[in-house]
Amino acid sequence: MQNTILGADATPGAPLNMRLERQRLHDTVVDHLRNQIVEGILAPGTKLNERELCETLGISRTPLREAMKVLGAEGLVEILPNRGASVSRMTETEIWETFELMSGLEALSGELACERITAVELAEIKALHYAMLSCKAQNDLPGYYSRNQAIHNKINEAARNSVLRQTYIAMNRRLQALRFKSNFKADKWDSAVHDHEEMIKALDAHDGKKLAAVLRQHLLDKRDAVLSVAKSVESTADEA
């Protein structure tokens, strides 16, 4: 079957090339499905039909099932025996507790980053910040979000704590779709941009306590925005 998601046929080759091609296909399928979930194209609770996805992506069931397992381990997909897979749906309690934990991880990342960040890393974060502002000016939410997440990610990397890094990645993957949706309202988006401007100032001053406080509140505000949207959706459904 043609690997249309890669834009090329999987032609036979040396064993190493075959392994590389297989890994490349696996990573591409995972990234594609993860982005679809994050951007809400595949909404929470959506049943993932293997046949339809294979036809759409131009792949066999093996790489799709391997990708499902990865997304299942990340908490983005729920796989039930004899019932297939569906996009995970977090409860209100799970959302509250996960954002609460993430706020602490982000705060610690910021505090440590202010102690350990290099001039090159700081310049990279500033460049991402200005690129993010450009995306907002163009009302490009996916572009804004990708740069927004890159900033948070680089702050976490600059903390230089491997255990914190692993925990951060695992928790953040569960929240990516919700963090993306939290900027749908203009006032929330403006507030998030203001927070990022404060983050840059604190990083520039190497003020760990200030950056930790900004990041913690930033995540708690995200939590409140997400829960507000969820309650609004439930209320609309009840009235229908």
Automatic annotation (TrEMBL):
Pfam name, any one: FCD
GO molecular function, one term: DNA binding
DNA-binding is among the record's keywords: yes
Record domain HTH gntR-type: where: 23-90
Assigned keywords, A-Z: DNA-binding, Transcription, Transcription regulation
Alphabetized InterPro entries for the sequence: GntR_C (IPR011711), TF_FadR/GntR_C (IPR008920), Tscrpt_reg_HTH_GntR (IPR000524), WH-like_DNA-bd_sf (IPR036388), WH_DNA-bd_sf (IPR036390)
SUPFAM superfamilies for the chain: GntR ligand-binding domain-like, Winged helix' DNA-binding domain
Family matches, as PANTHER family: TRANSCRIPTIONAL REGULATOR, GNTR FAMILY (PTHR43537), TRANSCRIPTIONAL REGULATORY PROTEIN (PTHR43537:SF50)
Name of the protein: GntR family transcriptional regulator
